[in-house]
Amino acid sequence: MAGLTISNVTKTFGDYDAVKDVSLDVRDGEFLAVLGPSGCGKTTLLRVVAGFEKISSGQIRIGSDVVSNASGSVPPEKRRVGIVFQNYALWPHMTVAENVGYSLRVAKVDKAVARQRVADALSLVNLDGLADRRPANLSGGQRQRVALARCLVAAPSLVLFDEPLANLDVHLRASMEDEFAAFHKRTGTTIVYITHDQAEAMALADRIAVMDHGRLAQLATPRDLYREPANEMVASFIAQGIVLPAKIMSAEQGGHVRAEVLGQEVVVRCRPGEQPRADAKICIRPPDLEIAGKGEAGFDATVTRAIYKGGAVRVELSPVLQPDLHLHVERPEPGSFEPGSQIRLKITSGWLIPNGKPA
Ligand code: ATP
User: Fold this and answer.
1) How far is the CA of 70 from the centre of ligand 1 (A)?
2) How confident is the model at residue 262 (pLDDT cuts 50, 70, 90)?
């Protein structure tokens, strides 16, 4: 296996930068998810790493080999990159073993060696015993595992997944997530996993690269993305973060500041060195919002909608002081949250969104 280093890569289509000055490294054996809204450049990034597209500027290295730079590009078949697509792309007339061994047959690998490599690859994805089936007689999850075995049989340096679970139903997705995680643990394969599903990215990845309009917005562990978003886009994109205007009043001990938010004073976490300022923004999560007790600091909000979520109610609200802002909390049922009624809320914690460059 090998690591991947992407340095200042830009990919332009006409005059549009689909990927803009992206730098990131994937360590040998790491599972990196690339996450972002539709059109943010995830697939383009995968395609330049695979070698299907030439880059406009920058450099891509796989291990110590430069595979793309402005003056040249190693063709896809020489990169030793395996790709698992969302539509599996299996040959329907071939058995599982024939599908998996196809590239070895084309490369004229000795038959006995090929048979063993196919058996090893099927075993890695827990498909022993299904070698003679045809794709039509497999479940969606099994087909996806055949696609994974087919890519592993070629002993790739790194494996790219392009939304591999997008075609599966919600139950199968969860079990395939477990399988991918177990597979990664077992093999130590270096993986770049493209997805727009953040729950999937959070569950699987060592680190997540969040993309926004072709740029890398933040590269961090799932926990750090959730707790310490680097900018407003990441704050609101990850786990439905709520971004609120704040005035920073003072720096407090141990990575905290005292802020005024919607008329309430609250102490929130921050990066070191934050100073008082008027135009700040904080990110809070639904669990950071509670119903205020009598006499407690807080603010009034009007219920705009209540949605039953099975065992809980998602209550959407707007602060009376700033009705253009949208808040939401999850409350256990039963509860009466009539649209138009008012509730007093308090913010219990949060994160000061840093000024300036992403971490
Ligand atoms: P999705 O999640 O919807 O698949 P994505 O994040 O993978 O989106 P890309 O497919 O990488 O996004 O596209 C990024 C941008 O580049 C889009 O605006 C897209 O229209 C544009 N783009 C992609 N490929 C081309 C191309 N061959 N020619 C022109 N524009 C392109």
Assistant:
1) 20
2) very high
Radius of gyration of the chain measured on its C-alpha atoms: 24
Query: Among 57-71, 82-96, 168-182, 295-309, where is mean pLDDT lowest?
Result: 168-182
| pLDDT tens sequence across 237-258 | 998 899 999 999 999 888 999 9
Give the distance from CA 300 to its chain's centroid: 35
Beta 191-195 vs 158-162: how paired, if at all? Answer: parallel
143: tokens are 């087909």
DSSP string, 32-44: EEEE-STTSSHHH
pTM score of the predicted model: 0.87
Cα–Cα distance, 278 to 10 (Å, whole number): 36
Question: Would you say 246 and 232 are in contact if contact means Cβ atoms under 8 Å apart?
Answer: no
Token pair 């802002």: residue: 325
Q: How far is the CA of 259 from the centre of ligand 1 (A)?
A: 40
pLDDT band at 217; cut points 50, 70, 90: very high
Question: Is the CB of residue 36 below 6 angstroms from any atom belonging to ligand 1?
Answer: yes
Rounded distance, CA 296 to CA 343, Å? 13
pLDDT at 359 exceeding the cut of 70 = no
Tokens at 38, concatenated = 């539709």
For residue 103, report the phi and psi dihedrals to the nearest 5 degrees: -65, -30
Q: How far is the CA of 45 from the centre of ligand 1 (A)?
A: 10
Alpha helices in 134-216 (DSSP H): 140-152, 170-187, 198-204
Mean pLDDT of 80-96: 86
Q: Which atom of ligand 1 is nearest to the CA of 41?
A: 11
The bridge status of strand 256-261 relative to strand 342-347 is unpaired
Using the 8-state DSSP alphabet, how is residue 353 labeled? P
Instruction: Please classify residue 234 by burial: count the beta carbons closer than 10 Å to its beta carbon, then call 0-12 exposed, 13-18 middle and 19+ buried.
Output: buried
H/E segment holding residue 104: helix 96-106
Query: From the CB of residue 109, how many other CB atoms can be counted at a distance below 10 Å?
Result: 16
pLDDT on residue 1: 65
Distance between Cα 110 and ligand 1 center (Å): 41
pLDDT attached to residue 19: 97
* 336: CB partners within 8 A, 6+ apart: none
**315, 289 contact by CB (below 8 A):** no
